[in-house]
Amino acid sequence: MTDTSADIKVETTGVALSGGASVRDYIALLKPRVMSLVVFSGFAGLIVAPGYLHPLLAAVAVLCIAVSAGAAGAINMWYDRDIDAIMERTKSRPLPKGRISPEEALSFGVTLTLFSTMLMGLAVNWTAAILLASANAFYVFIYTMWLKRSTPHNIVIGGAAGAFPPMIGWAAVTGSVDLQSIVLFLIIFMWTPPHFWALALFREGDYAKAGVPMLPVVAGTESTKRQMLLYTLVLVPITLLPSFLGTAGPLYGAAAVLLGLRFIYLSVQVLRDDGVRYAKRMFGFSIMYLFALFGLMMLDRAPGLLSLFGLTGAAG
């Protein structure tokens, strides 16, 4: 694929920028759907953390988390543009379609990475900034450039990148990494494999065609399903720890039990299913599951929300 704009039929959407790209194309580079979960979990970490952070600084911290996540997504698209052009799920992205050049995508991602890290450090604190930079570097160098194309355990190890946001939000308030924030990290870390393997089960042909060694492609569907159930069984008890550690209360704990039982049920059904119907259901539920967990955690810590904005005493 050539990068010469004269050889490309540009598909314009939204407001066109110089070179044929549109605002929508640059937004697509940021992977907004992925970013939404990153921002939500980062905001949750900020809300449930004990202490006070000025509302403006809290907004800056969330902005930095969002921009850094988008920057990592842009660099990921730059590096993966060859396999993105092959897979049905990704072939309409701006780079495979030629609407943005690789050089533009890389520059965009690197600039946003530096901006978000420096802003977090200067405006909030350097602990949060270091965690932010670490998450970005892990996603780009460890997952995208190394693990994704070399091992079926790419999601297991690479999932750490997506698990950083609640720790970053926590550190933005406290300036530290505590056991409670590590538990928030572990929830997303253990959730990632069953979530992505559910997707991989009904997108197996796509990954095989692109040469990405996702677990169903390398080890087969039955092994993948067993691994999904194993990770789910480990995940659910971890999701209960915030109640025991005081990060959340009984409302969250009760809901986490019920949601966890549903997640386990779907994982068992995936194992028993000869097709991909339950894999699709589990994938859809897994997204709602994580949003619900962190949403309930914040709801259970509503007094902490008031404390964050200086409207009452510090959260206990």
Automatic annotation (TrEMBL):
One GO-annotated biological process of the protein: heme O biosynthetic process
Keyword Transferase on entry: yes
Predominant location category: membrane
GO cellular component assignments: plasma membrane
Transmembrane intervals: 34-53, 59-79, 126-147, 154-173, 179-202, 283-299
GO MF term list: protoheme IX farnesyltransferase activity
Reactions this protein catalyses: heme b + (2E,6E)-farnesyl diphosphate + H2O = Fe(II)-heme o + diphosphate
Compartment(s) where it occurs, according to its Swiss-Prot or TrEMBL record: Cell membrane
EC main group: transferase
ATP-binding as UniProt keyword: no
Highest rank taxon of the organism: Bacteria
Gene3D superfamilies per the UniProt record, alphabetical: UbiA prenyltransferase
Assigned keywords, A-Z: Cell membrane, Heme biosynthesis, Membrane, Transferase, Transmembrane, Transmembrane helix
Membrane-protein topology: Multi-pass membrane protein
Biological pathway: Porphyrin-containing compound metabolism; heme O biosynthesis; heme O from protoheme: step 1/1
HAMAP family in alphabetical order: CyoE_CtaB
Family membership noted in the UniProt record: Belongs to the UbiA prenyltransferase family. Protoheme IX farnesyltransferase subfamily.
PANTHER family: 4-HYDROXYBENZOATE SOLANESYLTRANSFERASE (PTHR43448:SF7), PROTOHEME IX FARNESYLTRANSFERASE, MITOCHONDRIAL (PTHR43448)
Note, other: Carbon 2 of the heme B porphyrin ring is defined according to the Fischer nomenclature.
Protein name: Protoheme IX farnesyltransferase
